[in-house]
């Protein structure tokens, strides 16, 4: 397992539904190395979000193993998972999930408050993260005072500010027009090329997946293809 950021072995997730069981993941083996930019594709219901929830330590598997940065997390308690999640994972969602009444700066500072950092250090890092996504001049704006693309950039700054091992993005451009989506992909490419950030992104759109260096496709709860491409 050493060397990989994400390693799953025979990962399964069943959802009991009344008398039946939905086999959302039926044995996923994955290895993702540091500084990979991976897109996860596949039809609706193929298990993409279920897999992202497991990778993001928001859920635990029914069977199989999950190693995150060399530590097995598949058997951790909820408290342990929450700690790993705060330290190692930055989330970017389709719907941004920003606090509506808080400024960009405060939204980005928030994970550092949970991490217990002193105020000056928090501010310094939040300012730096916002500047790195080109929002140095929008620190005092609230989400409603920003465009969709700017909101998503605040969300990316918030994901980055804790310096996580991986950034997980579930359809990060799902609510954006194509021009704005390209801007967001440019930021992901900068993070991946410039900072060596590991990024795992779910998308339905081939034009978005094209920006990744590797495309993993799920079908019916298993990996049906895994291809590297010129990004
Ligand atoms: N909480 C749940 N309880 C029961 N079944 C679920 C639950 N979550 C997902 N499923 C089922 O598991 C399967 C995989 O769902 P999942 O949300 O992972 O798909 P997806 O690939 O993300 O789809 P989409 O592209 O539509 O977002 C589906 O058949 C779904 O109905
Ligand atoms: Mg989904």
List keywords for this structure.
single chain; 231 residues; alpha/beta; Rossmann fold; 6-stranded mixed β-sheet; 4-stranded antiparallel β-sheet; 7 helices; 34% helix; 29% strand; globular; binds adenosine-5'-triphosphate; binds magnesium ion
CATH class: Alpha Beta
Low-pLDDT residue intervals, each spanning 5 or more residues: none
What count of structural domains? 1
What is the beta-strand fraction?
A: 25-35%
CATH superfamily, please? P-loop containing nucleotide triphosphate hydrolases
Q: How many E-type strands?
A: 10
Number of helices, counting only DSSP H or I runs of 4 residues or more: 7
Structure description:
This protein has helices spanning 48-55, 78-88, 104-114, 119-132, 148-160, 178-194, 206-209; strands spanning 6-17, 20-32, 37-41, 63-68, 71-72, 89-93, 166-170, 198-202, 214-219, 222-228. The chain is 34% helix and 29% strand. The longest helix has 17 residues, at 178-194. It is an alpha/beta fold and 231 residues long. It contains seven helices and ten strands. It has a single domain, classed as Rossmann fold, CATH 3.40.50.300. The model has no long low-confidence stretch (mean pLDDT 95). It has a six-stranded mixed β-sheet, with helices on both faces. The protein has a four-stranded antiparallel β-sheet with strand order 2-1-4-5, with helices on one face. The structure holds adenosine-5'-triphosphate (ATP) and magnesium ion.
